[in-house]
Amino acid sequence: MVRFKHRYITVELILPKVPEYKPFYLKSHILSETILEKIQQVHGDFGLAAVKNGFVAKYCNENTRIAIIRSRHGPHRFVTSSLPFITKIGKLDVILKTLHVSATMKHSFKFIQKHQRSYLDTVWSKLRTDEERKALEEAVMNFTKTDISINIERLG
């Protein structure tokens, strides 16, 4: 039996035309298809065939706009090299910024916690009441509500 190693790529979605305070709901298959189309354009059939097996979008936080993409070890380089070339998801202009590449989901979530904590520190200075701060902290730091499968159920 052969064990396949995976890499988890943590990506930030930057949407210039959508305000930061508005949540951005994204279906996983749309994100996956967009990335695979770009890999096809940049790396051709070989890159697409190498990446396609084991490729999936695992997590998306609609408040902080962070997603985790899983790819097999080795072909993950095709994914990371293609991400900066993505300029649109659907009809929206978008910039994908690679934040972190890790070997396990656990390390990805640890990185996201640190990243989201720093995000909260910058946004908290703009909020006036403790209730607003607690509501924002719950929305940003709760990983179960922002699972990508739940986002699909809300939109579908």
Describe the fold and architecture.
It comes from Euphydryas editha. InterPro entries: Pop5/Rpp14/Rnp2-like, RNase_P/MRP_POP5, Rnp2-like_sf. Component of ribonuclease P, a protein complex that generates mature tRNA molecules by cleaving their 5'-ends. Keywords: Nucleus, rRNA processing, tRNA processing. GO terms for molecular function: ribonuclease P RNA binding. It is a single chain. The protein has 156 residues and is of the alpha+beta class. It has a single domain, classed as Ribonuclease P, Pop5 subunit (Alpha-Beta Plaits), CATH 3.30.70. It has five helices and six strands; from the N terminus they run βαββαβββααα. The strands form two sheets. Strands 2-3-1-6 form a four-stranded antiparallel beta sheet, sandwiched between helices. Strands 4-5 form a two-stranded antiparallel sheet. A hairpin with a 4-residue loop joins strand 2 and strand 3. Helix 3 packs antiparallel against helix 4. It is globular and about 55 Å long. The C terminus is likely disordered.
